[in-house]
């Protein structure tokens, strides 16, 4: 019976993944979340705990020494970590974002070399697409990769790179043929230890303060040509194909942040007394809580459906990845803002976690393509006749 309804119920294995990650986060991630935010410091405790439990890059296939988690299990890991600490959830999320180009399009040699190291915890992976003057219009990038014998030489600046400086490995999109715009972009693996790689100062951010965001400088970085991912000129297509899959992980991050805020608000509403009774007794507040719960569940269902499409590689993944990310991030912003409302003045202070969650939620509407860009992507898919394959 259950095999006939695979989309609408989690398997026992997926439920077990959730339980294991939640236990780990309750013990080793949540207790540090406020301190990580307050001091804008790397969540080392979470990084260590996730690595020890093999949740740091769960998507890496078993053949490369990884946990071999499918797209839905990976989403559940990210959601549960984000429920405790959004900054920490960027460890598994960005390890997938950075390494997926290798997994999707890299040579067997690149996969053996880099996915095994990622799985073994020898180094994280970052994704370098954005530049100071190329954000939504990523194809307008200026970073150049010029062939020189058996090597390529890279020059340029990548901006807003999550985990820059912490990661050992970087997927870098660079222009190999300036005449061909998006078809003149190629993808490469650059290592932190390559001569000419350096990093800017950490950005001072509104939220996800524990997740380092820095510029990456490429100054005559010479790398062997076999570090190119896929064929020359396919880097932009690989970058976009990667985002189709990883936008689902940002949707999961958003669902997790929203769930964390809802959980806290529910507990608080039952404790806090005004007018001689718990504020949860007031219907005005009940309706707010009901809407929060309804929207979190809707976002979760959409995220899991998109994860199924990611795993199967369905032709409507581009629409679903964008829709899930856009919807779930808008829900996260609304639900975390309303959680602050439920706590009243206390919610506005750093003594309670919901203001951190509200600040953290904001980034999910911006990165991996702003929600305006997601709407452009969705509209293009709809207008080109892509049908949902539910
Ligand atoms: C904390 C953080 C972490 C990040 N991590 C990474 C990372 O690891 N790797 C990476 O490559 N990038 C990363 N980014 C970059 C992120 O993806 C970009 O910031 C994002 O794509 C938007 O680009 P932009 O900031 O240049 O904004 P812009 O493109 O300048 O956009 C500004 C505004 O204009 C709107 N806009 C732009 N074009 C259109 C249009 N055609 N129609 C309607 N509205 C439009 C946007 O929606 C936005 O509201 C990160 C960013 C942040 C802040």
From TrEMBL:
Signal peptide: none
InterPro entries: Acyl-CoA_DH_CS, Acyl-CoA_Oxase/DH_mid-dom, Acyl-CoA_Oxase/DH_mid-dom_sf, AcylCo_DH-like_C, AcylCo_DH/oxidase_C, AcylCoA_DH/ox_N, AcylCoA_DH/ox_N_sf, AcylCoA_DH/oxidase_NM_dom_sf
PROSITE patterns named among the record's database cross-references: ACYL_COA_DH_1, ACYL_COA_DH_2
One Pfam family from the record: Acyl-CoA_dh_1
Limits of the Acyl-CoA oxidase/dehydrogenase middle domain: 127-221
GO MF terms held by the record: acyl-CoA dehydrogenase activity; flavin adenine dinucleotide binding
Annotated ranges, domain Acyl-CoA dehydrogenase/oxidase C-terminal: 233-383
Co-factor(s): FAD
Catalytic activity: a 2,3-saturated acyl-CoA + A = a 2,3-dehydroacyl-CoA + AH2
Sorted UniProt keywords: FAD, Flavoprotein, Oxidoreductase
Chain ranges of the Acyl-CoA dehydrogenase/oxidase N-terminal domain: 11-122
Similarity-based family: Belongs to the acyl-CoA dehydrogenase family.
Name of the protein: Probable acyl-CoA dehydrogenase fadE25
């Amino acid at each position: 019976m259950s095999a006939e309804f695979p989309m609408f119920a989690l398997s026992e294995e997926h439920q077990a993944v959730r339980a294991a990650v939640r236990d780990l986060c309750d013990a080793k991630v949540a207790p540090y979340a406020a301190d990580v935010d307050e001091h804008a410091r790397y969540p080392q405790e979470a990084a260590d705990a996730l690595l020890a439990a093999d949740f740091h890059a769960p998507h890496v296939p078993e053949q490369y020494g990884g946990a071999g988690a499918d797209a839905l299990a990976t989403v559940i890991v990210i959601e549960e970590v984000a429920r405790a600490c959004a900054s920490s959830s960027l460890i598994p999320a960005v390890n997938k974002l950075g390494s997926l180009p290798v997994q999707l399009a890299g040579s067997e040699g690149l996969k053996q070399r880099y996915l095994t190291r990622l799985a073994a915890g020898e180094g994280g992976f970052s994704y370098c697409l954005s530049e100071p003057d190329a954000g939504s219009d990523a194809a307008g990038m200026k970073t150049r990769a010029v062939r020189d014998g058996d090597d390529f030489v890279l020059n340029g600046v990548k901006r807003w790179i999550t985990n820059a400086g912490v990661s050992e490995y970087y997927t870098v999109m660079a222009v190999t043929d300036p005449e061909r715009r998006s078809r003149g972009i190629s993808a490469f693996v650059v290592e932190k230890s390559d001569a000419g790689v350096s990093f800017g100062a950490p950005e001072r951010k509104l939220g996800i303060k524990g997740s380092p965001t820095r510029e990456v400088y490429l100054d005559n970085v010479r790398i062997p040509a076999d570090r190119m991912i896929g064929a020359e000129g396919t880097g932009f297509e690989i970058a976009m194909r990667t985002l189709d899959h990883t936008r689902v992980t940002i949707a999961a991050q958003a669902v997790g942040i929203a769930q964390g805020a809802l959980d806290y608000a529910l507990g608080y509403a039952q404790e806090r007394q005004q007018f001689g009774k718990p504020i949860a007794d007031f219907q005005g507040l009940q309706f707010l809580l009901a809407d929060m719960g309804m929207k979190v569940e809707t976002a979760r269902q959409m995220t899991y459906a998109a994860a199924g499409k990611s795993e199967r590689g369905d032709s409507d993944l581009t629409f679903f990845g964008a829709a899930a990310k856009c919807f779930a991030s808008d829900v996260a912003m609304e639900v975390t803002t309303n959680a602050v409302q439920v706590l009243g003045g206390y919610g506005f202070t750093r003594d309670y976690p919901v203001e951190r969650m509200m600040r953290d939620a904001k980034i999910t509407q911006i990165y991996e393509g702003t929600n305006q860009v997601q709407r452009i992507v969705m509209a293009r898919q709809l207008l080109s006749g892509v049908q949902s394959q539910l």
